[in-house]
Task: structure prediction
Amino acid sequence: MKQTTERAPKLRVKKDDTVFVLMGKDRGSSGKVISVDPVKQKAVVEGINIVKRHRKETKTGGGGITEMPAPINVSNLVVVCPHCKGHIRPGKVTVEREKQGRKRRYHIRTCRKCGEHLDQV
Result:
């Protein structure tokens, strides 16, 4: 029997990115990514896709109706470049840095419009 090991697909969106919503009830708004689930291809964005949850009162916490952001599909989001403020699909660049006497290669996301780096190494 053959074992299959499925890996989570690579996503363009990472935690702490600023994203713009293309589709859905919050179309046209932007926010900061709180968390990303690569297996389900969903991201939770601050202030986007707010839903109400009815919570039962417990000994540790009170109950009631609370509002919280729900996950949104990554295909409905596009990254906003912090430098040129454009909606972009990030490109990748390989950068060599010397660390502890060894050369290391890093793949960094870059803006296709202005060429600035989106990630820090």
In short: The chain has a mean pLDDT of 90. DSSP finds no helices and ten strands in the chain.
